[in-house]
Structure formats: C-alpha cells, structure tokens
Design goal:
Elements (H helix, E strand, L loop, with lengths): L32 E4 L3 E4 L8 E6 L15 H4 L12 H15 L3 E5 L8 H14 L3 E4 L14 H13 L10 E6 L2 E6 L8 H12 L4 E4 L41 H12 L3 E6 L6 E5 L2 E5 L9 E5 L1
Parallel strand pairs: 2-12, 3-4, 4-5, 7-8, 8-9, 9-11
Antiparallel strand pairs: 1-2, 3-12, 6-7, 10-11
The chain binds fe (ii) ion.
C-alpha cells in the first residue's frame, strides 16, 4: 500500500489483518478514520465538545550531552550522530515545538525515543522545552530513552535503572509503566512496551481502563504486530533470539526466545477493546497505517528530521 495515497474509509474492515487467536469481527461500522497527507489522520469520535487536535511526536532522538556524563562517553558514541546533517535532532525538535506554540494543538503525544540515550542534558533539555511550549504533553519511553549502549543488565533492568536515575521528570509523577490521562474527553493510555513486552500489571491496567467505557487512545513506542510486519513488533510471533539482528551493534543482551505470554494476551485484548479509537506508536521511523476491524494502528514518522503525525479526533 502506498502510504501517502492511503485513504481509509468505510471499508476499513476489508483491510483488516487476521490475527492468530484474535477475533476477526466487524465490530466497528461506518467511516471511522481516514488519512490524507495534508489533513493527517482523522479518527471519528462522536460526542466530543469539539475535535481534539493531537500531534504525535515520536523518535526525536535528541543526542545532547555534557561533561556531567563524560563517564558514559563510550555508551553514547554510536547514537550521538545526526539523522540529517542539514537539520540536527535538536533543531528539528525545536522547530516542531515552535510550530506547536504557534498552532496550539490540544496535546503533544510523545511516544518514545525522545532521546537517544539518558544523559542529564538530554532529559533536562527535553523537559524544559516541552514545558515551555505551553501545550499539554504526555510521554512514554522508547527503547533508546533508557539505553546506554554497552551498559550491564537486561533491557528490563536497564529500563528500570535509567527511568529511576534520569527519566522520572518526563512522567510528572505518573507511573512510567502505565498511566492514563484524559484530554478533551478522550482518555490516553500510555503503556511502556519498549522492551517488546507488556507485563501482567500493564495488561490488567489496560483491561480496567478500556472497560470503563468512553473513547480511549492507546499510545506506546513499539507498534503491535500485524501479519507481514515481521519481528520488530509487540506481540510478534516472529520475535525470537535468532531474529535479533542488532543486539551486537546496540551492545545489549539479545532478545529472548519469545515475548512474554502477557504480551500476546495484550495483543488480543487490544483487538477486543471496543472503546479504543486508535493505537499510536513509533519505533519504525516512518508512517505506517493499518486497520483491524476499523481500529486504526499507526506509526509516526521520524521526528528527528522534523516529521510528526497530526491526528484529529472527533
Ligand atoms: Fe527510534
């Protein structure tokens, strides 16, 4: 599918990927979402006071550091480069926030890899600029936010360590693993799946939140698996030790043999959650969009080069 030309309409169910173990059912009727390059993603939601404008900012990959983190120089050397030599990640981030300050979306949805490594300078800069922008913002982590390449321990251990040591200001007191915030009548469920796993507690959180009714949007870093999407997805049957091609480059432990069972349960729970309007992720650094029975799953383009996904709900 040519993403730039992709326009989803009433026939959303027709493009649904059949998921193993997931109910494939036409639970959603009517024209539920559409995408155009000029208008962004429009998701239908009745009953809101006014349309909600969300800017999804994913994978900014800020790469700032100073002498306070000199001891980690070796850990951030590889990811310290720019994605575009003509526009630094910092400049791209500032450009996005300047635009937001002027156009005043209702929410900045930051879906991970905001930074390429957890230096003090990166976190301080990101929080200061996001706060100064004056637009409400929500954050969930990506796999690079908490990763110093070459550091010890499993991904889960590194995530816990660096969230505690560095990333907490990004959560403003919320639970880094799972929290919900209501903006303009829509509840945003922020779930950290940056290790490719969702644990039992996050699964229960998701079930409880979506069972409350009312429109919800699920925001995570790693997209949920669809047939043909390969190993780099959450709930992927293709994810396994042998499929991990980057563990040596990224200097981390290789993937396990399989994602946790709770991750596959979560994948099924998403498919069954009638109150979900959309699933918004990042990680792929490109715009992808697919529909499961009318529920849109999207990945945002690369904010490190100044691209975002604009989403209008209502
Ligand atoms: Fe990324």
């Amino acid at each position: 599918m040519n993403r730039r030309e992709f326009i989803a309409s009433c026939a959303a169910a027709a493009s649904a990927a059949a998921l193993p173990g997931c109910a494939s059912r036409p639970r959603r009727e009517g024209c539920l979402f559409r995408y155009t390059p000029s208008g962004g993603l429009r998701v239908r939601c009745d009953g809101l006071e006014r349309p909600l404008r969300v800017w999804q900012v994913s994978d900014s990959h800020l790469n700032l550091r100073d002498s306070r983190d000199d001891e980690y120089k070796d850990f951030y050397a590889r990811m310290g480069v720019e994605w575009n030599p003509k526009l630094t990640a910092r400049e791209a981030f500032e450009r996005i926030l300047d635009d937001a300050r002027e156009k005043r979306p209702d929410l900045l949805l930051v879906t991970g890899d905001l930074i390429s490594f957890p230096t003090l300078k990166n976190v301080e800069f990101a929080v200061e600029r996001l706060d100064a922008c004056g637009v409400p913002w929500l954050y969930t982590a990506g796999n690079h936010d908490w990763h110093f390449e070459g550091d010890e321990g499993s991904d889960a251990e590194q995530r816990a360590r660096w969230i505690e040591k560095r990333l907490l200001p990004l959560y403003k007191g919320e639970d880094p693993m799972a929290y919900a915030k209501t903006v303009g009548g829509v509840r945003f469920l922020m779930i950290d799946n940056s290790t490719y796993n969702v644990d039992e507690r996050q699964l229960e959180f998701f079930r409880a939140e979506t069972a409350k009714g009312g429109p919800c949007v699920l925001a995570m870093h790693i997209p949920l698996w669809h047939r043909g999407w390969g190993a780099y997805a959450c709930g992927s049957p293709d994810w396994c030790t042998a499929a991990d091609k980057n563990w040596q480059i990224e200097r981390r432990q290789p993937w396990a043999e399989r994602q946790d069972e709770s991750t596959f349960e979560f994948r099924r729970a998403v498919d069954e959650a009638d109150s979900l309007l959309a699933v918004l992720a990042g990680h792929y650094h490109r715009l992808e969009m697919v529909s499961d029975s009318g529920l849109v799953h999207a990945t945002a383009p690369l904010a490190a080069v100044g691209e975002i996904l604009k989403v209008t709900i209502g």
